[in-house]
Amino acid sequence: MKLSNKIIMSALLTASIFMTGCGSQINIGYVDGAKIMSDAPQIKAVLDEGQKKAEEIQQEARTTLENNPNWTDEEKNKALSELQRKLQGINQAYATQLKYKFDEAIEGIAQQKKLDVVIDSSENQKIVIVGGIDVTNEVIQKLQ
Questions:
Q1: DSSP per-residue codes, 63-119
Q2: pTM for the full model?
Q3: Residue 130 contacts residue 41 (beta carbons within 8 Å)
Q4: Residue partners of 58: CB distance under 8 A and separation at least 6
Q5: Would you say 74 and 86 are in contact if contact means Cβ atoms under 8 Å apart?
Q6: Are 118 and 30 contacting, i.e. CB atoms less than 8 angstroms apart?
Q7: Best CA proximity match to 121, nearest among 27, 4, 9
Q8: What is the CA angle 135-137-143, rounded to 5?
């Protein structure tokens, strides 16, 4: 997570604490997003499927270019632009699907554990140093 994102998350966390009042308790959970991305079977399946689709489109483009050796540079550029458009579409579709699965699992765990806030505190970029409830394994379990 970039430094600016950490600052924004800290500001949001601070604001949420002040909004709940000094006498209220806020329940904070955190996840290791990188671990979820690498260990959750549903996430890995979506990533693998997206990678396979991208490879199919790249192979299709290679075949098209090989079958048309006499194309002008303009025709090749047009074909490569079309490939890029298709790849962007695939990346966007699978990124949306990943975000939905990721968010849905985290929201479910947050409701179950009555957490007010869940933040990403990956091992390599810790936001939560002490306290909070690590729900990473529960999210991975939910994404089985």
A1: HHHHT-TT--HHHHHHHHHHHHHHHHHHHHHHHHHHHHHHHHHHHHHHHHTT-SEEE
A2: 0.71
A3: no
A4: 83, 87
A5: no
A6: yes
A7: 9
A8: 105
pLDDT, tens digit (0-9, with 9 covering 90-100), for 85-97: 999 999 999 999 9
Structure tokens at 75: 């025709």
DSSP three-state, residue 31? strand
Tallying the residues shown for the chain, one arrives at 144
Best CA proximity match to 103, nearest among 120, 122, 125: 120
User: What pLDDT, in 10s, does the model give residues 9-27?
Assistant: 665 555 555 555 555 688 9
The rounded distance, in Å, linking the Cα atoms of 112 and 110 is 5
What element of type H or E holds 134?
A: strand 133-134
Q: Tokens representing 62?
A: 């290679």
